[in-house]
Amino acid sequence: MIDQAIFQKPVLVSMKDLDVTTVKLLIQRAEAFKQGLHLELTTPLYAANLFFENSTRTHTSFEVAERRLGLSVVQFDPQTSSVKKGESLYDTCLTLAAVGVNLLVIRHWQDAYYKMLINQPSLPVALINAGDGSGEHPSQSLLDMMTISENFGDFSGLKVAIVGDLNHSRVARSNMEILHKLGAQIFFSGPAYWYTPEFAPYGTYLPIDELVEQVDVMMMLRVQHERHQSAADFDAAAYHRQYGLTVERAARMHPDAIIMHPGPINRDVELASELVESKRSRFVSQMQNGVFMRMAMIESVLRAQDLGCLV
Amino acid sequence: MIDQAIFQKPVLVSMKDLDVTTVKLLIQRAEAFKQGLHLELTTPLYAANLFFENSTRTHTSFEVAERRLGLSVVQFDPQTSSVKKGESLYDTCLTLAAVGVNLLVIRHWQDAYYKMLINQPSLPVALINAGDGSGEHPSQSLLDMMTISENFGDFSGLKVAIVGDLNHSRVARSNMEILHKLGAQIFFSGPAYWYTPEFAPYGTYLPIDELVEQVDVMMMLRVQHERHQSAADFDAAAYHRQYGLTVERAARMHPDAIIMHPGPINRDVELASELVESKRSRFVSQMQNGVFMRMAMIESVLRAQDLGCLV
Amino acid sequence: MIDQAIFQKPVLVSMKDLDVTTVKLLIQRAEAFKQGLHLELTTPLYAANLFFENSTRTHTSFEVAERRLGLSVVQFDPQTSSVKKGESLYDTCLTLAAVGVNLLVIRHWQDAYYKMLINQPSLPVALINAGDGSGEHPSQSLLDMMTISENFGDFSGLKVAIVGDLNHSRVARSNMEILHKLGAQIFFSGPAYWYTPEFAPYGTYLPIDELVEQVDVMMMLRVQHERHQSAADFDAAAYHRQYGLTVERAARMHPDAIIMHPGPINRDVELASELVESKRSRFVSQMQNGVFMRMAMIESVLRAQDLGCLV
């Protein structure tokens, strides 16, 4: 059983708060769920997923994880909520806690939105960050670590490339943080102007053609057109040729090396369409693992809340 | 147990239809749910919540109440429904009843929309009004009565101020109706031009500075910008200074007097932000009580429908 | 019990794939559900309903059918999904399958969208077409056959008129296909320019006044304004007078003849408002039957997927 003290507070918002031991415990627990571990709630619990940005993978994955753990999922759509009448995120959460919601899973466009929600005695709820602006994306990061762990066992000395739209990527930020702690060697690639100074302490920049033969993991990032100023000027074919993982480049990867992508994929931009479901690709595994990792995350924050209801 | 004959028809749409005895029975029943009363459905029942106006509190509160009573909640979003193809509200409800929905909870922008739905033999469903235009808001009104009852026991002679955007407020209309029947003394305040002749029979108008020291309940109303013609001209600071419950004014309230607000709050407009979770405020209690009162309402209409399925 | 081999593949997308025996088995099974047949899942199953076009009847009917069979329904709204970031329908389905969804019910504006989804080993899900563009609408067609079967027993020699907006109607396409196989005699009516050559092999065109006295079923189609180029020019009263089922025309129908409509109805356009719930009308029966037919369809595709979980 997961140690009830894995978290002191019922909050999981940033990879910065997680040490190596905790990450490994969460991976271990997620693997147990994947093997069929089943928990029972001893009292009804309610979850609400507040997605202020579009999502398929993360949203449905959290919902399935909640239902598998026996939670009841309350519908919430920002577009038809009182947010449209100007209600703040804090007051929205205050409301949901008051009507009996026990777990809030939030994706929001504002960086570190969660700072206004944690350490509030009036919000007796568990909280998981499902992505904050260009900040972090801890559940994606943890499912990525789980997937890497399944393939390579240990992280020490593992060579991981994070490639593409670094600047707007919360996946890049969360993953470089934890990969660094876990002892992996990090490389960055993609358009050089997206390799801003905040990335330098975590790893060096290399053109993709120099990277592709020497790393164990090619972690391709989605070009986030919706966060760019001038999406109209973007030349997808040119990007693919210069920065993308093409079929030709993939052929030069180490025999055991894998390809990862957090999705959604711009096919034939950052990643060749033919590679998406290729033998090297862990795209589908990542999505499958996501449900089990999110179950482990939810279990942890519920136990920290001391609801004493998972047996 | 609630008397099966509390309602003749499976309909709860207006506070005008409820006498004092019924309101007190509903409060008593809601308190029993709050104390942990648990009912079981003997047959599966389905609820649909049709919200044609934005809502967080009322919508999620009804959903949690339905789930706590064991009902299955069918998703319905007017924005992706056949309403967009021009289907009428009546035909929408006819459809939902035909596919097996047993309870409809409706919020609609049209005043008294429910008149076209009740007494229709082809609609064998229970119906609760969750707010009609600038008409009524019975579930808010009943949870407000529950909250007042918890604080003061009896309503007789209780002094209640309803303050703010009276003209557009279904909360004001529903509450003045039932408070009057319950024997409370009602006062109104806010911009004088919103105190239209329909309010006069229920209570007198006083400037907030004259009210604040003498009433037991300050019921602050939300300024409903979305129903106003010229929201751009609105000066929030000026409104707060002249008509709002400021920290200074709250300090002059009677020691046992309470502050209420139906939410969502325009912080620092009708109510000072610091007061929202202050000791006097019942804002969170109102939201908590809402779930239990809605359980009592749902139980009552289901029993009137004679589904014989709650034990 | 339904034969586990009723379908070879867990897919129900077109009436063209169904022979007469299968249709009759599905009707028989739907009637069993209507009589109260109850199945139990031996393992939790998840359904997702992907509606890329507006719907009330079909969407809620599938959801109720899924819940009655014990499936858990995962929320999915294209408007707030990664489809908005450009993710393809295939990748969306790949994602849902990966997170553990077992049944996809899809309505999409693209004709035959399902061709890119079936026979994909990477998509281990059951698939039901809930309407594709101006293509087909098999669940509507099957519930229509069930309703006709309840009224007339056999289809052989039955005279069925399909009247109205033929050109845009997937209901017309699915129904003429199966009615033809079942031995019914088909007639078409409505504006002659909507009777395009694809309809000719299935039945002759007649003006409504010549049809109304000689057919057993008047199947009225909705004028689909949203699929027309020039909705502004449309004269509803003129359409009703010339092509619609008026009260006067209905009075000339054979005593046992019935009126059907897939909904939503444009009242007083294709069908007089007074006729919607008249004795001849099967509009409400169609919607009621829809839930049971969809249960039969879902059961069939789940059994073909060999989930072995319905007992």
Automatic annotation (TrEMBL), chains A, B, C:
Spans traversing the lipid bilayer: none
Any single GO BP term: amino acid metabolic process
Residues annotated as domain Aspartate/ornithine carbamoyltransferase Asp/Orn-binding: 157-299
The EC number(s) this enzyme carries: 2.1.3.2
Superkingdom of origin organism: Bacteria
Signal peptide residue numbers: none
Enzyme class, broadest EC rank: transferase
Pfam families: OTCace, OTCace_N
Assigned keywords, A-Z: Pyrimidine biosynthesis, Transferase
Pathway: Pyrimidine metabolism; UMP biosynthesis via de novo pathway; (S)-dihydroorotate from bicarbonate: step 2/3
Subunit structure: Heterododecamer (2C3:3R2) of six catalytic PyrB chains organized as two trimers (C3), and six regulatory PyrI chains organized as three dimers (R2).
Family designation: Belongs to the aspartate/ornithine carbamoyltransferase superfamily. ATCase family.
Record function comment: Catalyzes the condensation of carbamoyl phosphate and aspartate to form carbamoyl aspartate and inorganic phosphate, the committed step in the de novo pyrimidine nucleotide biosynthesis pathway.
Protein name according to UniProt: Aspartate carbamoyltransferase
Origin species: Loigolactobacillus rennini DSM 20253
Gene this protein is translated from: pyrB
